[in-house]
Amino acid sequence: MDFDSLMRPHLDALYRISFRFCQHQEDAEDLLQDLMIKLYPRCEELDNIKNLKAWLTKSLYHLFIDGKRKNNRSPLQLVDDETTFYESTPCHELGPEQQLAREQRVQQVQCVINQLSDEHRGVLVLHDIEGYRLSELQEMLGVPVGTLKSRIHRARARMRDMLQTNSADSTKSEIAPAQGNLFYAKSVK
Length: 189
Fold this sequence. Notes:
Elements: H1 3-22, H2 25-39, H3 43-47, H4 52-73, H5 96-115, H6 118-129, H7 134-141, H8 145-188
């Protein structure tokens, strides 16, 4: 088979995973392009791989981790414009208030996912968002199932704690001005 016919069925899923790893469209495209460039000369080998999707995901994950390690060692950090996660996702069925609340919640969850360590974010994205089974992740990442379960549990617990903290902080900030205004209004009378 030629390279295009091997890769085309997997590109959408690989881009989605890449975007979740990188959190920016341009970085996700670069990561996927780097993977394709590295794999192109090995087209004949790819044709013999039993579970190509899992193998490609594993390769993408390792390329992402290698890139993060390389960037962490670099003294120069490039700053990029932030893009909103799922900014192009339409919410036609919801009213404006519900749509705004949904978009804020998605932003909040994405922000929390971005704060997780690369290791926890990678496993969480692959398992909970992309739907890979533990046995597939074990094969892809070369990590024992027990370790994967532990990482997923810790990532979920960390997310839960951060979401609760963010929720409590936003509730306090919404309540505090109202109480101040009431106090002020009472003292004026």
